[in-house]
Amino acid sequence: MLDDPVEVATRLVGERFPQAHAAFLGGSAPTARRTPWSDLDIVVVMDGEPASFRETLRHSGQLVEWFVYTPASLRHYWRQNVSGRRTPLLRMVAEGIPLISVDGVAETYQTEAAALLAAGPPVPGADQLAVQRYLVTDLLDDLRGGSDPVEISFLAATLVLAASDLLLLSGNRWSARGKWLPRRLAEVDPDLPAQLAEAQRAVIADGDREPLVAVVLAVLDRTGGPLQEGFRLAGVEPGR
User: Fold this and answer.
1) Does residue 92 come out as left (phi exceeding 0), alpha (psi in the -120 to 50 range) or beta?
2) How far is residue 61 CA from its own chain's centroid?
3) 97-101: strand order across its sheet
4) Where are the domains of the chain?
5) How many other C-beta atoms are found inside a 10 Å radius of the C-beta of residue 223?
6) How many CA atoms lie within 13 A of 180 on its CB side?
7) pLDDT of residue 25 exceeding 80
8) Of residues 195, 194, 209, the one with CA closest to residue 152
9) Which of 46-60, 131-145, 169-183, 212-226 has the lowest mean pLDDT?
10) Average pLDDT over all residues of the chain
11) Cross-strand pairs, 98
């Protein structure tokens, strides 16, 4: 494990992108959550060339994920984070450690990103929430009626994700994927991530679906209840 990930990241930015006017080290590497497998998530902002890109390389044995932007493209991908309700880039800047800051511009970016995070995602429409409730209800029926153990295992995993997204959507909270999803979920209900994980384990290890059915029904009850009969979603006629 790196002794000083901030020092290593600062050196790498200086060597590869000396023209950068701002850079940040995000992710787990500069935190207590760091593990021997943590990579360095480095956001670099600079004017002009090269064009924006994301790239993963290994430098002297250390895996580095580079996220390279111009000011305009950085804000473009922030807007994508907001519209998609998932905020990896916003958080890398808002919560990361500044490595380079010409004339204090890194702190300006951090303030802007933090404000977008604090404002929250777009308020979901009634149709968006109904679609997610319908999806979770449908997946729950598939889980109850399934007979193939492989399909049931996949359904359990999909249902955990869909139920998590539903609860976060209903509360107009940011969502996530991977290790960040249970962290976002715990902000709403500290017990729910472990309940979902244990219920999923029961399906896969023991073939017992009832704990997951019960947890997901509880999520549905908190978000308007199961939805099947009466669900209607208006379509769009092209050209009108």
Assistant:
1) alpha
2) 27
3) 53-59, 62-69, 40-45, 22-26, 97-101
4) 5-119, 126-222
5) 20
6) 13
7) yes
8) 209
9) 46-60
10) 93
11) 24
The predicted structure's pLDDT at residue 32: 66
Which pLDDT tens digit goes with each residue over 89-123? 999 999 999 999 999 999 999 999 999 999 999 99
Residue with tokens 């990103």: 113
Residue with token string 């901030």: 6
Which tens digit of pLDDT belongs to each residue from 38-96?
Answer: 789 999 999 876 679 999 999 888 899 999 999 999 999 999 999 999 999 999 999 99
Architecture, CATH, for domain 5-119:
2-Layer Sandwich (3.30)
Judge contact between 136 and 215, C-beta under 8 A. no
Three-state SS string over the chain comes to CCCCHHHHHHHHHHHHCCCCCEEEEECCCCCCCCCCCCCEEEEEECCCCCCCEEEEEEECCEEEEEEEECHHHHHHHHHHHHHHCECHHHHHHHCCEEEEEHHHHHHHHHHHHHHHHHHCCCCCCHHHHHHHHHHHHHHHHHHHHCCCHHHHHHHHHHHHHHHHHHHHHHCCCCECCCCHHHHHHHHHCCCHHHHHHHHHHHHHHHCCCHHHHHHHHHHHHHCCCCCECECCCCCCCCCC
> Among candidates 86, 53, 84, 87, which has minimal Cα distance to 70?
53
Quick one: tokens of 29?
């590497």
